[in-house]
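Lecture notes, part 5. Sequence design as translation. It can be helpful to think of inverse folding as translation between two languages: the language of shapes and the language of residues. The source text, in structure tokens, appears below.
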């Protein structure tokens, strides 16, 4: 078996004593896991999911999952600082080291920073703020992702064009400013998204809503937020021009009509001659009926 350092691994329990259990870690031999981290009724042959890392040259395991794994980016808090490194709280007993040379600015205790987990030649894990060298700017060669595919996103930075996102911990993509309206996107936040399009130069445009009803559902939440911010009334409807809809809501008129049609069926809004008005308490029976008709129930 091959143990992956910096990842969650499923290891077989070999034996148990009154202090804990010993797991089969392949070429690393048997590794100890404290009794408090074992399943309620441990028995030989049972597989246990553990995080594997090197500590003082020896393989160490824990059943606790760190906040970010090898090859992932996330926002962590600085616990301590020494002359040559800072140490980050990443949710397990051993803190994650970020050497001074891997810091963009000198860190101090209490700071929050966006970091990427990497591994050196000896298998030791470390954090870096300078992780562009690990990430592709374009869709990697051989990657089969296409328009409409769902992906994992991590917010990297806010640029004049929109939000730079890490996609599947592998490459960068761009979420346009207009597509992020109404969503709180802070550096390091993780969320689901979609491939909107792949350009000729293989750079990737992203979306927070997919096609079809998934996109409508996401836009429905957005429109309800907009109504709430506007005291429950918006002067837009089927009578509005496509240009007005695009400028105000950053969606096509076709999608807008689907959204307000869905909200009307759910008795969430009234359709007026001069706009749409929110209904605070939808009728539960009607919501259930619509859910059943759409196959969601």
């Amino acid at each position: 078996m091959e143990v992956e350092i910096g990842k969650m691994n499923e290891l077989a329990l070999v034996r148990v004593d009154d202090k804990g259990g010993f797991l089969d870690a392949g070429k690393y031999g048997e590794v100890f896991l404290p009794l408090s981290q074992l399943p309620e009724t441990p028995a030989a042959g049972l597989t246990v999911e553990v995080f594997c890392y090197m500590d003082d040259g020896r393989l160490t395991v824990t059943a606790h999952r760190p906040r970010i794994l090898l090859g992932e980016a996330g926002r962590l808090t600085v616990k301590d600082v020494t002359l040559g490194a800072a140490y980050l709280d990443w949710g397990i007993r051993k803190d994650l080291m970020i050497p001074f040379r891997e810091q963009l600015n000198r860190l101090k205790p209490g700071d929050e920073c966006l970091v990427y987990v990497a591994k050196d030649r000896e298998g030791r894990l470390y954090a870096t703020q300078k992780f562009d060298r690990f990430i592709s700017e374009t869709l990697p060669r051989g990657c089969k992702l296409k328009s409409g595919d769902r992906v994992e996103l991590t917010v990297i930075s806010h640029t004049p064009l929109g939000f730079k996102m890490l996609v599947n911990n592998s490459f960068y993509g761009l979420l346009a400013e207009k597509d992020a309206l109404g969503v709180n996107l802070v550096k390091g936040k993780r969320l689901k998204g979609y491939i909107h399009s792949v350009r000729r130069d293989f750079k990737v445009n992203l979306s927070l809503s997919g096609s079809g009803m998934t996109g409508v559902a996401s836009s429905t939440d957005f429109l309800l937020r907009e109504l709430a911010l506007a005291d429950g009334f918006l002067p837009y409807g089927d009578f509005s021009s496509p240009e007005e809809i695009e400028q105000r809501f950053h969606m096509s008129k076709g999608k807008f009509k689907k959204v307000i049609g869905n909200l009307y069926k759910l008795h969430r809004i009234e359709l007026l001659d001069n706009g749409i008005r929110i209904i605070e308490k939808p009728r539960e029976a009607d919501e259930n009926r619509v859910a059943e008709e759409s196959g969601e129930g």
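The translated text above is only one of many valid answers, since several sequences can fold into similar shapes. Confidence is low (pLDDT under 50) at residues 289-297.
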